[in-house]
Design brief:
Layout lengths: L2 H34 L6 H22 L4 H23 L1 E3 L2 E7 L2 E3 L1 H19 L6 H20 L4 H18 L3 H20 L2 H11 L10 H13 L24 H34 L3 H25 L17 H20 L18 H32 L1
Antiparallel strand pairs: 1-2, 2-3
Helix pairs in contact: 1-2, 1-10, 1-12, 2-12, 3-4, 4-5, 4-6, 4-11, 4-12, 5-6, 5-7, 6-7, 6-11, 9-10, 10-11, 11-12
Length: about 400
C-alpha cells in the first residue's frame, strides 16, 4: 500500500469512526434528560444524523473535485462568509443571549463555521502566490486586516471560541509558509493582547477566566461546569460506568452533549475510552500532517496543514477546557459534539484533505510559482537545461574534431 493511500485510509477510518461514535454519545447525553423532561429522547440524535448525512455527502463530493478549484473560489467563499456573518447579527436566532445561527427550514446554520474554512482556503491561496510576510507590516496587510474584520464580526455574536480556532488555523498556515519566528511572535502577541481585552470587557468571559484560575471560589456559579466535569471524570474511573449509565448529564453537567461531551465520555467509558478518543485525534493529526508534507503544490501543502489544524487544534482546545487545563471557550469537539454546522464543515474539510492526499503529489507538474506566472514544472525546466547542455557538448566535440582534421591536412 502506498503512503498516500495509507494516510487516506487513516483519515477516513478516524473521521467516520468518530462521527458514528459521536452519534452514540449525543444520544447517550440527551436521551435521559429528554425522557425525564417529557421530551423526545431521540430529538437530538435525529437532527445530528441529518447533519452527518449532509456532511458525508459533501465529503464524497469534495474528495472527487480537484482541490485546486478552491484557489479560484476563495474570493467567492470569503464574500459569502462575510455577508452571512453580517446577516446573522440582524436575522440570527438568539439562543442563550447569542446570535450565531441562521434558520434554514427545520435546521440551523452557523456562518462562523463556514468562515473558518473560507479563511483557511483564502490564506492558503494568497500565501502560495506571494512571498511569506517578512515583517509585521506585511503580515497586517492583507492577512491581519482581513482576519481582524471576521474576528470582529464573530466577537459581536458573541463567539470567542471560533475566533481562537481561526487564529490557530491561520498560525499553522503561516508556519508552513515560512513566516519568520519573530514576525509570528509579534503577531501572536498582538492577537493575545486583543483576546485578553475581549475577555476583560465582557463580564461572562471574565467570570470564566477567574473560574478557571480557582473554580472552587464560585462552585455553584461560574466554576460549576468545570467542577461537574471533573467529578464526572472521577466517577468514571478506569473503565467507566457504561454507555448510558452516567448521571452527570442528568441535571448536573451543563451542555453535556456539546462543549462538555468529553466529560460524558470520561464518566461512561472511563480513562480507557477517553484515551482512545485522544489517540484517534493524534492519528488524524499524524495522517493529515503527512499529507501536507508529501504535497508538492504550495497551495495544497498550506491548505492541508490548515485543515488538519482546523480539526485537531479545535479538539485540543476543547479537551484542555474540559480537563480544566484551559478556560472554557465554547469550542465543540469535532465529529463528536452535537453541532450540525461544525460537523458539516469538518466532514467537508476532510473531503478536501483526501483530495489533496490523492492529487497533491502529482500537482507539481502544473503548479504556478508565487509570482502568479506558470513557468512549468521544475522537472521540465531541468530536462530542457540538460538537453541544451548535451547539444552544446556535441557542437564543441564537432568543432574540435574539425580543427584537428584541418591541422592534419596542412
Amino acid at each position: 500500500m502506498k503512503r498516500g493511500q495509507l494516510d487516506s485510509h487513516i483519515l477516513v477510518l478516524v473521521t467516520l469512526g468518530l462521527t458514528a461514535f459521536g452519534l452514540v454519545m449525543v444520544y447517550s447525553a440527551t436521551s435521559a434528560p429528554a425522557a425525564l423532561g417529557g421530551g423526545d429522547p431521540v430529538f437530538y440524535l435525529k437532527r445530528e444524523s441529518i447533519y452527518a448525512a449532509i456532511g458525508v455527502v459533501l465529503l464524497l463530493i469534495a474528495s472527487r473535485v480537484d482541490y485546486r478549484t478552491l484557489r479560484y473560489l476563495a474570493p467567492i467563499l470569503m464574500l459569502a462568509s462575510f455577508g452571512l456573518c453580517l446577516s446573522v447579527l440582524v436575522l440570527g436566532e438568539q439562543v442563550n443571549g447569542a446570535r450565531r445561527w441562521l434558520g434554514v427550514g427545520p435546521l440551523a446554520f452557523q456562518p462562523s463555521e463556514l468562515a473558518k474554512l473560507s479563511l483557511a482556503v483564502w490564506a492558503a491561496a494568497y500565501l502560495s502566490r506571494h512571498r511569506a510576510p517578512q515583517s509585521l507590516k506585511e503580515l497586517a496587510r492583507p492577512i491581519g486586516i482581513t482576519t481582524g474584520l471576521f474576528a470582529g464580526l464573530i466577537l459581536l455574536e458573541p463567539d470567542l471560541g471560533t475566533v481562537i480556532a481561526i487564529g490557530i488555523v491561520l498560525g499553522a498556515i503561516l508556519v508552513v509558509s515560512g513566516v519568520p519566528l519573530r514576525v509570528l511572535a509579534a503577531g501572536g502577541s498582538i492577537a493575545v493582547a486583543l483576546g485578553l481585552a475581549a475577555i476583560w470587557f465582557e463580564p461572562y468571559r471574565r467570570a470564566r477566566l477567574f473560574s478557571f484560575i480557582d473554580p472552587w471560589h464560585d462552585a455553584q456559579g461560574a466554576g460549576f461546569q468545570t467542577l461537574q466535569a471533573i467529578i464526572g471524570f472521577g466517577s468514571g474511573g478506569v473503565f467507566g460506568t457504561g454507555i448510558g449509565q452516567g448521571v452527570a448529564k442528568v441535571n448536573y453537567l451543563p451542555e453535556a452533549h456539546t462543549d462538555m461531551i468529553f466529560a460524558t465520555i470520561g464518566e461512561e467509558l472511563g480513562l480507557v475510552g477517553a484515551a482512545v478518543v485522544i489517540a484517534a485525534y493524534c492519528a488524524f493529526a499524524y495522517a493529515g500532517l503527512r499529507v501536507a508534507l508529501r504535497c508538492r503544490d504550495p497551495f495544497g501543502k498550506r491548505l492541508a496543514a490548515g485543515l488538519t489544524t482546523l480539526v485537531c487544534g479545535q479538539a485540543l482546545v476543547n479537551l484542555a477546557a474540559v480537563l480544566g487545563l484551559a478556560p472554557l471557550t465554547g469550542i465543540t469537539l469535532p465529529f463528536v459534539s452535537y453541532g450540525g454546522s461544525s460537523l458539516v464543515v469538518s466532514l467537508a474539510s476532510v473531503g478536501v484533505l483526501l483530495n489533496i492526499a490523492g492529487h497533491g503529489g502529482a500537482a507539481s507538474a502544473q503548479v504556478s510559482d508565487r509570482s502568479g506566472r506558470d513557468r512549468g514544472s521544475r522537472a521540465a525546466v531541468a530536462r530542457r537545461r540538460r538537453s541544451a547542455g548535451r547539444a552544446r557538448g556535441r557542437r564543441n566535440v564537432r568543432r574540435v574534431a574539425g580543427s584537428r582534421r584541418g591541422a592534419a591536412r596542412s
